[in-house]
Write a structure and sequence with these properties.
Number of domains: 1
Number of strands: 4
Shape: flat
Strand content: 15-25%
Largest sheet: 4 strands, mixed
Mean pLDDT: 77
Oligomer: single chain
Radius of gyration: 15 Å
Helix content: under 10%
Structural class: mainly beta
């Protein structure tokens, strides 16, 4: 599977409170030309690429009041993104015995 570089776009405040310049910058990456599908997970968004079966870009918001409030000790290694059509989802086997890992 071909791997694409991932650009992480960080913000310290919610998207609604970002400046116009920040919103325009984010729209350069999160639009219908760059993304086959944009998945909104409340605290982060994923610009998904069907061909690569992975994210082109990820944007997330860090809220200082919520950092470390709910730490998860055992995190799953992988989960299917159910918002994607089945044929475009990555599977755990896509990442096993991968030369990049």
């Amino acid at each position: 599977m071909k791997k694409l570089p991932i650009l992480l776009l960080l913000a310290s405040v919610s998207f609604a409170q970002t400046s116009i310049q920040e919103k325009l910058f984010i729209k350069k990456f999160f639009n219908n030309k760059q993304c086959d599908q944009i998945i909104d997970k409340e605290y982060f968004q994923i610009c998904y690429n069907y061909k690569a079966k992975g994210a082109n870009y990820v944007y997330y918001v860090l809220d200082g009041n919520k950092v470390n409030t709910v730490n998860i000790k055992d995190r799953p290694r992988f989960y299917d993104e159910l918002e994607l059509p089945r044929k475009y989802r990555s599977k755990h086997s896509d990442y096993t015995r991968n030369q990049l890992i």
